[in-house]
Structures are given as C-alpha cells and as structure tokens.
Amino acid sequence: MSNTETLIEAADTANKQREIDNETASTPDLLHKKVSSDSEISNISFKACGLDSWLIETLKKIAITKPTAIQAACISPILEGKNCIGNAKTGSGKTMAFALPIVQKLSQDPYGVFALILTPTRELALQISDQLAILGTPVDLRQTTIVGGMDMMTQALALVKRPHIIIATPGRLADHIRSNGQETIDVFKRVRFLVLDEADRLLSPGFSEDMQKCIEILPEANNRQTLLFTATITDSIRNLKNQSSKPGKNPLFLYNITESPIAVPSSLIQTYIFIPSYVKEAYLYRIFNTQEYKEKSIIVFTNRTRTTELLCRMFRILDFKITALHSEMPQKERTQSLRKFKAEASKILIATDIVSRGLDIPFVELIINYDVPKDPDDYIHRVGRTARAGKSGESITLVSQRDILLIQAIEKRINAKMEKNSYVSDFKVTQELNTISAAKIEAEMSMTNFGQLKKNNKRKHENLKE
C-alpha cells in the first residue's frame, strides 16, 4: 500500500494492527472535478459555498469577501462530508479552504479533539494556528500547537485538556504518543477531521515512521474525513484517480487548478553567476552591495543548517541587518526571525528549505541560491517565493564547476535556460576578499558549540523510542 492510500483509508485496521501492510488497498469513491481556469468559479460566493452568515461576517472583518479558486471548489464538498485532495500554489488560500468548513462543523457540534492538522514544519503549524485563532473567535475555539522546540510537559497538559483543534508536526506528536501512551491515544478517539497540509512532504519517506504512529491512533477512515492539501501533486497522490470506487467508503473530492507540473512564475528573471567555490561568500557580499539589489527584500537559500548559521554570523559582523531560519535554532529564535523579516526589520533572510514552501511570507524581490538544490523541484519551490501574483522578481544561482550537472537537470525540468547575471562585478569581488575572509574566520570561531541542540534532541528522541 502506498503512503497516500494508507492515509486516505486511515488504515481500516488502525486500532487493530501497528504496521501498514504492503498490499494494495481499496480507496474511497472518487468524485473528480476539473476546473480549467479560475474564471469558471469566479462568481461563486462564500454563501454559495455553504458557509454560515456568522462566518462570512468574520471574514469581512479581515477584508476577505470572496473565495479564492481552491476555496470555492473545496469548501462545499468538505461541508458535505467528502474526503478531499486540494492542489494549488502557495498563497492561493489552501489553509482557509480546510479551516473554514472545519470551524463551521465544529460550531454545530463542539467537542475536543475535533480536528487534527499535521504539517511538516513548526513555522507552518504556527501560521495555521494564527489563522484559526481569527476564524474561531466567535465560537470560542480552543486550539493547541504541538511542535518541537517547546516544553513537552506543557504540551502534554494541553493535550489532556482536549482542545477543539490540534495543529502538530508528526515528529513531536509521535514523541507524545510514545512517551504518554494510552493517555495521549485516548485524546484522539473522536477526531472528526484529519488534515495533511503540504501533504506531498508529509508522505515522503522521511516522515513515514512518525506519520504511521500518528495515523494509527485515529478513528477508522469511514468515521472521519481526511483532507490533503498540497502545492504539488505527486505520483502517489495522482494515482488515486485511477483507483476503483468501493461502496461504503467516504467519497473523495479531488481538485486541481491545473494538471501541469509545478512551474516557475512567468514573471521571474532567472540568472546565474559562475564562480570558484572558494569565493562564494565574497560573491554573496558583492550581490548585497550591488546597487541593483542593495535595497531589495532577499531570501538566501542554503543546503545545510551550518552554512546558514555561518553566513548569518558573518554578515552580522559585516554590519548587515540579517536574520536566519533553520532547524537547529530554538523555536523562540525561529519565530522572532520570521517576524523580523515579515516586518522588514531585516531585509535579508538566510534559510534552509524549511522556508521554500507553505509559509506566508510578504513580497520578496530576490531569491539567491547560495547552494544549488539537488532536486529540481526544490529549485522551483525556492524561486517561487518571488514573482508571485504576476509581480516581477529575480533569482540568482551561484554555480561552481561541481554544480553543472545539477544546473542542467534544473534547466531541463523548467524547460528554460538561466541568463548570465550582468550586474555583479568580478573585479570588486577580488578587492573585498580580505574583508570577507576576516569576517568568516571570526564567525567560525564563534560556532564551537553549534549543533549541540540537534545532538540533545536526537538523544531525547532515541530515549523515547526505547
């Protein structure tokens, strides 16, 4: 059975077995609706979607008067009791597409735990929590966020109180299940909704063990609704279209804005700079100081947490207003960094791929791939943080000799060639090497204890499994 089938079915044997069989399983009845363009549903109102008047008034207070395409397509089927797979680009309103019907259903039969929402990152969980807090105010919605980097005892006490909605990352929720056993399992006995946000990532091999632990404690598939939302429809999700329908199962509503693979924004200018790998920091410094880019809002993507931290410390030494976001930062620092960047207190954010998808980040003008991503789709998600909603944007990828095959794979995937960047001066880079080298040495000397948090968390996780 594929991961997707396991989650849609919610493992009919969820409370009877503790591992997923490798056999092909049946899937729900399939209701597949194709919408070729947003114009086909442009006249649909929230009222026509089936939302109650009090919820429509709540939306008006935050200046939301009309549903987006994915909201107009998915809200009604969810209210009708269908399982749902929603596919749309980041920033298209996917969170509201599942949050609105869940809050309305909760208002009609309030109890805890009513819904479990799983997300791949802490930041996305906190973002969803903020939106639910607004929507749920009229019905006194109680929610809690279960993510890493926060005190487990405080979270355990919050779970026992059975809030209406729990937003969690699979790893931390699985830790609670392993450590508290039946006490935590009982909390989820009556869950009405399971939501997987950024489902393609949650269904990847890296999450499989923790996802299985979370899914197996929930009610069986026909006793709840399963909602999957993603910016990327993978083969495993797409294969659900071809599954035969079976009687007695919840119908599945599948919504795609387009059948095409994910693509780079049409208004994006994609450039590269070919450099020796040992002067990458100097070229990054030159980009930051180039007249064309120095006032722009910038996200710099790296492949490693250590690189992210080193660059952040380096450029702070060089007096840049800069912030970082990566998995080895304490949660409080991660939250503060994101808030600083959104508020434009820092114009530059250096981050790993935890920022590349899902998060609601304000207008970004320039994406820099300090490290070339190994997966072409990761490149698309990164550069998709700019040139959104038809606005202009630019990406710069730093390319060394060893990156050529990766660049060729990316260009094949996007069916386009990157242009050579014409703004950054090689001559000025050579003049600044001494300044950069001194800052790098100072930054490296300050990182003697970096990685200790990760080691401590790994040790705790291993102890929970014993």
Describe what this molecule looks like in 3D:
The protein is of the alpha/beta class and 466 residues long. The protein folds into two domains: 3-256, Rossmann fold; 268-453, Rossmann fold. Helices cover 41% and strands 15% of the residues. The protein contains 20 helices and 15 strands. The protein has helices at 3-9, 46-49, 53-61, 69-79, 94-108, 122-135, 152-160, 170-180, 182-187, 199-202, 208-215, 235-238, 280-289, 305-317, 331-342, 376-383, 404-414, 426-431, 433-445, 452-465, and strands spanning 30-34, 83-87, 115-118, 143-146, 165-168, 193-197, 225-230, 252-256, 268-274, 298-301, 322-325, 348-351, 366-369, 393-399, 419-420. The strands form two sheets. The chain has an eight-stranded parallel β-sheet with strand order 1-8-2-7-6-3-5-4, sandwiched between helices. Strands 11-12-10-13-14-9-15 form a seven-stranded parallel β-sheet, with helices on both faces. Helix 7 links the parallel strand 4 (143-146) and strand 5. The longest helix has 15 residues, at 94-108. The chain is globular, with a radius of gyration of 23 Å. 45% of the residues are buried.
Any chance you could write out the topology, listing elements then pairs?
Blueprint: H1 3-9, E1 30-34, H2 46-49, H3 53-61, H4 69-79, E2 83-87, H5 94-108, E3 115-118, H6 122-135, E4 143-146, H7 152-160, E5 165-168, H8 170-180, H9 182-187, E6 193-197, H10 199-202, H11 208-215, E7 225-230, H12 235-238, E8 252-256, E9 268-274, H13 280-289, E10 298-301, H14 305-317, E11 322-325, H15 331-342, E12 348-351, E13 366-369, H16 376-383, E14 393-399, H17 404-414, E15 419-420, H18 426-431, H19 433-445, H20 452-465
Parallel strand pairs: 1-8, 2-7, 2-8, 3-5, 3-6, 4-5, 6-7, 9-14, 9-15, 10-12, 10-13, 11-12, 13-14
